[in-house]
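Regression test attached.
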Amino acid sequence: SQTIHQWPATLVQPVGSPLSLECTVEGTSNPNLYWYRQAAGRGLQLLFYSVGIGQISSEVPQNLSASRPQDRQFILSSKKLLLSDSGFYLCAWSGRVGYGYTFGSGTRLTVV
Amino acid sequence: SQQGEEDPQALSIQEGENATMNCSYKTSINNLQWYRQNSGRGLVHLILIRSNEREKHSGRLRVTLDTSKKSSSLLITASRAADTASYFCATVLASGFQKLVFGTGTRLLVSP
């Protein structure tokens, strides 16, 4: 069966520090991968999606970047965090159109 | 920007009652999905309804879709305290890449 792993679960980082969040998927090949951010009490905002290795599409211009170095690995990064980068970050994968997404357990990032 | 808007934003009911949440969206869709999120956790896919379907059932869940009104509803029958969570509708647009665009969510509280 397919599983998705996301870590770390919680992260507190100072302003100006770098960020690296990792997401890996098991049990499927060539998945579509997504990074979402959720502000407190709000809906989810799509940040990046990827249809294959090295293929990244950005939805919102911001202080973050994403990379997909391997088929089932998706990384969210920042060179210098801002206070506004705080939030709940969720990784997800999907297969073909017409099927639901599977989400990771999320990373709660607090920038101080 | 948000594609979907849920109504109500918050709903408080007693165990055994039915809970109805509504979702409206703006542009033509390929399918509409409902997700559940327990506090501080990842999202769990509940049900998917395609644009050519009008109603779908899964256990105690019933979803309807009215594409002429660009709206959907989620009914949870015989609610339990364990149903307490936030519920989100999300749409896959009819054109372009199959990214999932989320609404703002309904917070459901089911009291024993």
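Expected vs. actual: identical. The mean pLDDT of chain B is 93.
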